[in-house]
UniProtKB/TrEMBL annotation, chain A:
Organism, as annotated: Alloalcanivorax marinus
Catalytic activity: (2R,3S)-3-isopropylmalate = (2S)-2-isopropylmalate
GO biological process, alphabetically ordered: L-leucine biosynthetic process
Annotated function: Catalyzes the isomerization between 2-isopropylmalate and 3-isopropylmalate, via the formation of 2-isopropylmaleate.
InterPro entries: 3-IsopropMal_deHydase_ssu, Aconitase/3IPM_dehydase_swvl, AconitaseA/IPMdHydase_ssu_swvl, IPMI_Swivel, LeuD
Name of this protein: 3-isopropylmalate dehydratase small subunit
Domain Aconitase A/isopropylmalate dehydratase small subunit swivel positions: 1-132
From TrEMBL, chain B:
Signal peptide start-end: none
Enzyme Commission code(s) on record: 4.2.1.33
Co-factor binding comment: Binds 1 [4Fe-4S] cluster per subunit.
Keywords: 4Fe-4S, Amino-acid biosynthesis, Branched-chain amino acid biosynthesis, Iron, Iron-sulfur, Leucine biosynthesis, Lyase, Metal-binding
UniProt key word Mitochondrion: no
PROSITE patterns: ACONITASE_1, ACONITASE_2
Name assigned to this protein: 3-isopropylmalate dehydratase large subunit
Pathway: Amino-acid biosynthesis; L-leucine biosynthesis; L-leucine from 3-methyl-2-oxobutanoate: step 2/4
Class of enzymatic activity (EC top level): lyase
GO BP annotations listed: L-leucine biosynthetic process
Keyword Lyase belongs to the record: yes
Subunit annotation: Heterodimer of LeuC and LeuD.
Amino acid sequence: MQAFTQHSGIVIPLDRRNVDTDAILPKQYLKKIDKEGFGAHLFDDERYLDAGDVDTPPAERRPNPAFVLNQTPYDRGTVLLAQANFGCGSSREHAVWALQDFGIRAVIAPSFGEIFQGNCFNNGVLPVILSQRDVDELFRLCRQAPEQPLTVDLAGERLRWGDREWPLSVDSARRDALLAGLDDIGITLERAEKIQQYEVRRRREEPWLF
Amino acid sequence: MTQHTLYDKLWDRHLVDTLPGGESLLYIDRHLIHEVSSPQAFAALREKRRPVWRADANLAVPDHAVPTRNRDLGVAGIRDGLARQQVRRLQDNCRETRIPLIDLTDQRQGIVHVIGPEQGLTLPGMTLVCGDSHTSTHGALATLSMGIGTSEVEHVLATQTLRARKLKTLRVRFHGELDEGVTAKDMVLAMIGRLGTAGATGFAIEYAGPTVAGLSVEARMTLCNMSIEAGARAGLVGYDGVTEDYVRGRPGAPDGADWEAAVTHWRGLVSDPDARFDRDEVFDAGALAPQVTWGTSPEMVAPVTGQVPVPDEAPPGQRDDLRRALAYMGLTAGQALEGLPIDRVFIGSCTNARIEDLRQVASLVRGHRLSPRIRQAIIVPGSGLVRLQAEREGLADIFECAGFEWRAAGCSMCLGMNDDRLAPGERCASTSNRNFEGRQGKGGRTHLMSPVMAAAAALTGVITDVRGL
Ligand code: SF4
């Protein structure tokens, strides 16, 4: 996993509740078998005015000027700000790969879809939960000074924007893993013996499961 | 006396270890795999030279991107090159790792959440995961079942465990007798309408109460299936005689002495009478009318007798979302739902494509014809075996005589990864579970409802209260 300690970047304001993973990455792009290149299709349905066929060459696509990702300076943004329940719906991790490939390192919202939130952590994209009031304030601030970067300091557990600061609280296990860029599977496999012992016991007690 | 919920019991039983930092390591009894969320997980294992921990605890099936026509041609019948490559990759990955695969031409092929229970590969007391959010479906059989992402798919393949934190528990009790024409789909849509799409985030929902006790396992699966649309990662129903009758004799079910031992164990898979839940909600199922979604989130739902809301009358924080949803759906504030013209009908998905759903549809459309207003109505059974059963019972003939297209099994127009898709602006009566913008095709407009309500819309060409037909 990609480590995360601190990041500064322009905030992309997406002032909407219940943004689902279908919207973040539409289904026609789920057919790829690697993790590359999804950023070009982040929010594809809304970002482009054409039909969004997989085969359309990039040069022939028609960007929707009304969509935030097609506006400066947000096209250079690396922190996404949204409203409650961001990333609800489908479990597709492709949605996170798309955010990451676009360059987004952190997403801030009052709440997240649970599977999406886990997928973010597992890819080194930091999901930050802030209170509704703080989120609303951040929307206001970022619109006033779009070029002003936000600093997401995971090690120091703070968010900073100009002289404003908010505490940043993240699940401690997830935080440690992100800071160190730990390999989850490697850590679990250190417990291989425990898993095997568990299997021996279950096999004895519920043999029909094996 | 113990005071454990069913969720607590399943959790405790599968706890392998606690990790530094406080997460738990849960043992996973069954892992279901499909073509879309797995290739990157297999590739990562290969790259790190990690073997699959226990191949026979897995089952793979292609379902999401597969066409619902030309099935006899197998993979060669998939015209879309990327989808074909994805299904081929699943075949290769399974061959390499010795994971059992139900392939495209296998009669048992179908939507992963339909075939698990159908094959008896979902058994009470299990933990079950799949790289798909509707894995909550399997909780209808007293299992702890959750959707996971691709990184977690890799973790489960490599370790047979999942890292997790314990969820809170929400008990949703339904009492009262369902009106004729009102189904489990209406129960769960009404629940989502009240709780909201994030209302149960962080919870596992246990469905209980006399109405749920009276439901078949298939209908309970419809309830558990849509738990995720309320934000809950898992849905559960306690084990009872209905569960037992459903599981008995299935290919993966134990038999002989094992069956007796299993049943003795399974009978304890209920919440204790004095178990404490973190939260309780109660619904009067007897008061429910058929439900129809009008917006772009499953919480945007109303009784068919109701109206589309008026954004100006909503709390200020919600007005923009409502306006946006109405604009997308091509509706005006305050408009009645009944009578809204429909272009297409989709009967299928892991929510409502089991044999009981199809029987209900057939009983309504027998001897009738689709309204000439309907451009296309397709019925996509949940599995090849459901399809076969429906043909044996004569249901397929009824559908075709009525003008429906009778397709091969898969996810199909539930998410539109294959050719079955809405065109921009088309309005669809759909038995699936998500009405998100673009879900069934860019610009498509989805109204979620039960199978009988979709059938009613097919016959009249407009959204119709099935109770009046
Ligand atoms: S039928 Fe729809 S919801 Fe169910 S698994 Fe397939 S795509 Fe997902």
